Amino acid sequence: MLQAALRHGLIGLLLMTPALAAPTAEQRGKAFALANCARCHAIDRISRSPLEGAPPLRTLHQRYPIETLGEALAEGIYTGHDDMPVFELSPDQIHDLLSYLKTLE
């Protein structure tokens, strides 16, 4: 009886492990920012932006409510300078990036 209960418990833990190891929305958002934004923008709470004049992502909430950025990210980010690439994010990418940006507020 005890052996069967331990076996079932172990099987349950093994089935849960991949779900527990899956990255969170915040982690995926940070990975996106690192891959796509960090060349110019500081993506953490303390660093300076590598490109002078590029605002750190941690300050975006001071200019825009983070929740309102979803529509702009879905339509595509277009800027007036050549260094900024055009971005059109998927709904999942938007959710992840906004989740990460909220951690920087």
Uncertain runs are: none
- Strand content is under 5%
Q: Regarding CATH, which class? A: Mainly Alpha
Which series of helices and strands comes N to C?
HHHHH
Shape: globular
**Helicity, as a percent range:** 40-55%
Number of helical stretches of at least 4 residues: 5
Q: What radius of gyration results from the CA coordinates?
A: 19 Å
What is the mean pLDDT? 83
- Broad structural category: mainly alpha
Task: Give a concise summary.
The protein is mainly α and 105 residues long.
Features:
105 residues; mainly alpha; Cytochrome Bc1 Complex, Chain D, domain 2; 5 helices; globular
Q: Could you explain the architecture of this structure?
A:
The protein has 105 residues and is mainly alpha-helical. The protein has one domain (25-103): Cytochrome Bc1 Complex, Chain D, domain 2 (Orthogonal Bundle). Helix content is 53%, strand content 0%. It is globular and about 65 Å long. The relative contact order is 0.16. The mean pLDDT is 83.
Write the layout of secondary structure elements.
Elements: H1 2-21, H2 25-36, H3 60-63, H4 69-75, H5 91-103
